[in-house]
UniProtKB/TrEMBL annotation:
Signal peptide: 1-27
Organism of this sequence: Slackia equolifaciens
Name of the molecule in the record: Oxidoreductase molybdopterin-binding domain-containing protein
Keywords from the UniProt entry: Signal
Pfam families found in the cross-reference section: Oxidored_molyb
Length: 268
């Protein structure tokens, strides 16, 4: 940011010292004595306000951007293959179902259960493409298990709305073809963009993450990114599952055995 200049703010005591007034003592009047003394917090606030420098226009360039997308071969290497074991997506079957054959049913505490095919999703007006991030929950700082991608799919919330859930429904369960489940509070889905994705960077999901479709969740660890979703079930639970960003969910994730324990340190 070449146009941005560092502004040096000189305090009152520095000005006095520079002007030769550092040793001048000012006599206090009776009015000064009678005035209540401001607290340290108030003095700090007043000092901060007096030192604020306002700039009418800031000019420059930011070197960091989230608009870049990660190539599919990089996603496959750092997330697609690894997520078969590290994320909650589970391994994709060797013989993958042709993308045009998969269907998703929406049922449970709804008044309009239905089943839709891939072709019906693709041809609907609800298909959207947007840039989303994907990062493994155990990814360290500067770790490679993170990516930005332009994903194409249908919002899970739109699919749920089409089924007309009951007023008491508070839990959404996404079930994969192998029986793996991800349960989330309904209000969490309502507050985050959560698409069922079938294309990544303009190519079928199988070329990067693997599988035919995958649940992506905005601002959520990839451990919830289940693949090959075949059903979405609305439930009325007495206690809905914890939100992924809650302390309860993080504590539960921390107690799961890691990959070395599960596979004896040798992942094939």
């Amino acid at each position: 940011m070449k146009a941005l200049k560092k502004t040096l703010v000189i305090g009152t005591s520095s000005i006095m010292a520079l002007s030769g007034m550092g040793g001048v003592a000012l006599a206090a009047t009776q009015a000064d004595v009678d005035q209540p003394t401001a607290s340290a917090e108030e003095q700090n606030q007043q000092s901060a306000e007096s030192n604020v420098v306002q700039v009418s226009q800031v000019i420059g360039e930011f070197a960091f951007t989230q608009g870049e997308t990660t190539a599919n071969d990089v996603i496959k290497k750092n997330l697609g293959d690894a997520s078969k074991y590290l994320c909650g997506a589970h391994a994709v079957a060797d013989a993958e179902e042709p993308v045009e054959d998969w269907t998703i049913s929406v049922s449970g505490a709804v008044s309009n259960p239905y089943e839709a095919t891939y072709d019906e999703f693709v041809q609907s007006d609800d298909v959207q493409s947007l840039l989303l991030g994907c990062a493994c929950a155990g990814n360290p700082a500067d770790g490679r298990a993170a990516a930005n991608a332009e994903v194409t799919g249908v919002s899970a919330l739109v699919m749920i709305g089409m089924a007309e859930p009951s007023a008491e429904a508070n839990t959404v369960v996404f079930t994969s073809a192998d029986g793996y489940e991800v349960a989330l509070p309904l209000d969490y889905i309502q507050m985050h963009y959560c698409p069922i994705v079938f294309d990544v960077n303009g190519a079928p999901l199988a070329e990067s993450m693997g599988g035919t479709n995958q649940l992506w969740l905005g601002s959520t660890a990839a451990s919830y990114f289940a693949r090959d979703i075949v059903s979405i079930t609305l439930e009325e639970r007495q206690t809905p599952p914890p939100s992924p960003n809650s302390d309860e969910a993080r504590a539960g994730y921390g107690n799961l055995p890691n990959i070395g324990v599960m596979f004896g340190g040798d992942v094939q």
